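Worked Example 4.2. Consider the chain below.
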Amino acid sequence: MTFTRLKENLFPDRVFLRDAGVHNGETMSTTSLTAVTQAQNANIAIAAGLRRHDPELIEQLIDLYQHRLFRYLLFLTGSRELSQDLFQETWLRVLERGSQYSGRARFDTWMFAIARNLMLDQTRKRTAISLDEATDPERERPLEIAGDTPSPFDHFHSREQAVQVGRALLTLHPLYREVLVLRFHEEMSLEEIAQISNAPLSTVKSRLYRGMAALKPLLMKDREVER
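Applying the procedure from the previous section yields the following structure tokens:
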């Protein structure tokens, strides 16, 4: 499989499966099953290339994922300088530990987990605590389950409004900010976010609901100021 073909398979399949409503335990159609197989084959192709230390593959992966990785790190750290350092270090780790990627999970999930662990290492060095060991905002108030109303992200589509969302996100607790970025910017499933953050699925759901509840009034306030 050429990398061009592999690149075409990475994202359309995921969107197709989400739009088709294929989720945990649901019966897949033949077409959906084929899409899953193609995505798995793409991951296996990446794993094989990483084991060979294929320089062309690495270059293509960087080209494909660089903007998403840097955005994730920027939201996670709130520091452009630190994000740039972690960005470089993440790709070095991908090169060094490429043989550890089996292809069973999506490559971007594995890559984001590497980036997060590097960020935690930096945090421990600077503050002697990890992201998850910081003051847990989830203990400060009861859980507010999100209803069927549109999420705060559904109201903001233009570039200018996206800047408002980004600015509001940076004011949230890092745990909330991370799950919101992965869920809405990266369009990852809750299970994938749990894998990246090494947290139970219930914890990820709690952080998502609380993050949305905290973000919504910030965005509404910005709207009122503009009027």
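The chain has ten helices and no strands. Residues 3-17+32-127 form a domain with the Rna Polymerase Sigma Factor; Chain: A fold (CATH 1.10.1740.10). Compare this with Example 4.1 before moving on.
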